[in-house]
Amino acid sequence: MKIGKLACLTAGLISVASLTPSARADDIKLAVQPELNWETTPEGVAFASLKGNRFDESYMAMVRLPAGLISPVHTKSAGMYGLIVSGEMVHLSENEIGGSEVVLKAGDYYEIPAHLPHLSKCVSEVECVTFLYQDGPFDFVPVGEGRK
């Protein structure tokens, strides 16, 4: 694991934006789980923004995936850095599909480089929750649609 990326992720966790707009810039910022505002995609993946607008800039969010969800092989234009909070996940590059799988559990870290074709799966019997930092705006380009 690259120490610089982990330090960036840790610094991001410390600076998470408050859900209370009246907080001063020098206050401790807290995001209490029951107050998170989850937005669910048609595929059932839910995002709770912590800092930044995921469609316009780099951002931090809590992400929930339904148990058993397997994404299609896709790419993202930005790098992704995540920490598993609950559940069990597998992330595979396109070249690793069909090979051995490392199951990530609570406390495990993952890093997916920008433009790397990959798939993600929630392999647990319960939903998977991750803390996610993405170093640019969110996109999801299924493989084949983004290639020329």
UniProtKB/TrEMBL annotation:
This is Cupin domain-containing protein. InterPro entries: Cupin_2, RmlC-like_jellyroll, RmlC_Cupin_sf. It comes from the Bacteria. Pfam families: Cupin_2 (PF07883). Residues 1-25 form the signal peptide. The keyword Signal applies. Keywords: Signal.
